[in-house]
């Protein structure tokens, strides 16, 4: 056989694959989200997943979705996108964010302010929420492109 193989994964599949792999670190029992930021040189400059802040014991804080707000996970959890931005190094201007779930309005603000210009997302399961509507509105105003990830590939990792 001569020549290079041609069933290699695309850049988008590669970086979304890393976002999905990162989500496997999440301890959230309901929704696991991973994110991967890539600069214009196709270099990964930040990764993250949703979880509680450093030093906050994830066996002690609640993982509930309902009940008194302070007894749910929502006030405590750091979203994958925010963690990827906070973990990043170097300039994010013009960067692309790959994320397993469309960003909420709070992360949308951080994405815009950090200079990220393109968002590629896998799931949009909260598409009709006010938060998603606000994110789209801000992305449109700020000139951040967002696109649904499309692929027919299946990537299996077995250790
Ligand atoms: N774009 C997003 C949206 C949500 N998250 C995190 C926040 C929670 O840990 C979880 C959502 O929980 P659910 O309401 O679906 O039980 O996902 C994120 O990291 N990025
Ligand atoms: Zn968020």
Automatic annotation (TrEMBL):
Cellular compartments per GO CC: cytoplasm
A Pfam family per the record: dCMP_cyt_deam_1
Claim: Ribosomal protein is one of the keywords in the record: no
Co-factor(s): Zn(2+)
Residues engaged in binding Zn(2+): 79, 104, 107
Keywords: Hydrolase, Metal-binding, Nucleotide biosynthesis, Zinc
InterPro entries: APOBEC/CMP_deaminase_Zn-bd (IPR016192), CMP_dCMP_dom (IPR002125), Cytidine_deaminase-like (IPR016193), dCMP_deaminase (IPR016473), dCMP_deaminase-rel (IPR015517), Deoxycytidylate_deaminase_dom (IPR035105)
Molecular function in Gene Ontology: dCMP deaminase activity; zinc ion binding
Any single GO BP term: pyrimidine nucleotide metabolic process
Location of the active site: 81
Domain CMP/dCMP-type deaminase residues, every copy: 10-138
Family indicated by similarity: Belongs to the cytidine and deoxycytidylate deaminase family.
Name of this protein: dCMP deaminase family protein
Lineage: Bacteria, Pseudomonadati, Spirochaetota, Spirochaetia, Spirochaetales
């Amino acid at each position: 056989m001569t020549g290079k193989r041609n069933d290699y994964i695309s850049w988008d599949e590669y970086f979304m694959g890393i976002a999905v792999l990162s989500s496997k670190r999440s301890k959230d029992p309901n929704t696991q989200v991973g994110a991967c930021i890539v600069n214009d040189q196709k270099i990964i400059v930040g990764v993250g997943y949703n979880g509680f802040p450093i030093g906050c014991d994830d066996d002690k804080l609640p993982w509930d979705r309902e009940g008194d707000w302070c007894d749910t996970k929502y006030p405590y959890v750091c979203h994958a996108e925010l963690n990827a931005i906070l973990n990043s190094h170097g300039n994010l201007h013009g960067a692309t964010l790959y994320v397993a779930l469309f960003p909420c309005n709070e992360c949308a603000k951080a994405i815009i302010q950090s200079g990220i210009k393109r968002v590629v997302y896998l799931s949009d399961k909260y598409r009709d929420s006010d938060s998603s509507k606000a994110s789209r509105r801000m992305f449109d105003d700020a000139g951040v492109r967002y696109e649904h990830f499309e692929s027919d590939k299946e990537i299996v990792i077995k250790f």
